[in-house]
Structure formats: C-alpha cells, structure tokens
Amino acid sequence: DYLDHFKRHIYHVPFGGMSRRAHRAVMKSQERSFKKAEIEQSFQEKVMPGLRYTRQYAGLYGNSTFIGLLGHIDGGGIDAGDRLSVYAYGSGSQAEMYSMRLGEGARSWVGESKMQERLDARFPLTVEQYEALERERTSNIDQATFTPRRDAVPGLWEQNYEGKGLLVLDGLDGYFRNYRWS
C-alpha cells in the first residue's frame, strides 16, 4: 500500500503547488476511494513537511526532490530507516518513482549544511541586477566553452561563495563542466 508503506512522500515540484496535485492524483489512483478531507490530511502529514525549503526557494526544477528531502529531514518526524517515496519526472526524462530509506548520518549531514542559515543570508536583487544575470545566462546557454562571471552582481560572489568551501561551476570546456571548491 503506497500510502501506508512510506512514512513521507517527495514529489518533483518545479513549483510547490504541484505537490498537492501530484499527491491527490496518487491517492485517487489507489484501490480505496479517499474523501477530499483524507487527501488533504495525508498531504499535510506526509508531503507538506518536505516543502519547508521549497516554499522559500521558488522554482527548483531538477533538484526539487533533493530540496524536498532536506526539508523532510530538517523538519523532523522521520528517523533513520524510515521509508520515503520519491517521484521524479520532467526535463525530458521518463517518470521514475523509487523507494528510499533514510540513512543513519542523514540528519547530522543536513544539520551541517545550515540550509536555513544560507537561505536567511540571501539578499534581494534589483530588477536591473536580475535582468543582467538573465542576459548573462541567456548569452552563454548554448556555448561550448565559457567561464561564468563572478562580478555580474557586486558583492554576490564574495558574500555567498568566495572562501566558503562550496562546490561551484568553474566553467565549461567543450561542453564539459568543470567544478571547483570556492
């Protein structure tokens, strides 16, 4: 039984509202018929805790399942060994549903990531800064070789990446991505 077998559910959600639709569709596909209130209660208990960071990030696309996993772990209510369902789709790939068990070190690793602290450290961009970043991204999207600019938004790189030991894209060389630690 999909709903009882898994402690929590994680859905690929390019935007958070899709998770409610996905969960409702899964519940309606079960042999048992669920009432609207039962579907909502299940969503609140088994899906909503994983949207903790998704609700702050906005559109995440391919990494939304991983951000959902971080939200479930950091939000509590699950323990090592608990089974979670992960449903991923989109970006031209086939749909995949898989089962996972939460590992022993997951909670400490997520705690060390300081996700909420990082989210709280963000700063707003002006429309002009956002548009400059989008122009930069658009101009390089099909380039085989390029090095990302670190100065498109003054202070952004220095405040959030430089010397922080984070894995960052250093550039593309013949479509091969090269990463380094900041």
Write a concise keyword list for the protein shown above.
182 residues, 3-stranded mixed β-sheet, 9 helices, two-stranded antiparallel sheet, alpha+beta
Question: Can you describe this structure?
Answer:
It is a single chain. This protein has 182 residues and is of the alpha+beta class. Helices cover 42% and strands 19% of the residues. It has 9 helices and 5 strands; from the N terminus they run H-E-H-H-H-H-E-E-H-H-H-H-E-E. The strands form 2 sheets. The chain has a 3-stranded mixed sheet with strand order 1-2-3. The chain has a two-stranded antiparallel sheet with strand order 4-5. The chain is elongated. The N and C termini lie far apart (45 Å).
Terminal Cα span: 45 Å
Structural class: alpha+beta
User: How many helices does DSSP assign?
Assistant: 9
In the sheet with the most strands, the strands line up as 1-2-3
pLDDT averaged residue by residue: 88
Name the shape in a single word: elongated
In short:
By secondary structure, this protein is an alpha+beta fold. Helix content is 42%, strand content 19%. The protein contains nine helices and five strands.
Topology:
Layout lengths: L1 H4 L2 E4 L5 H12 L7 H11 L7 H4 L6 H12 L7 E8 L2 E9 L4 H8 L1 H6 L6 H14 L15 H5 L6 E7 L2 E6 L1
Parallel strand pairs: 1-2
Antiparallel strand pairs: 2-3, 4-5
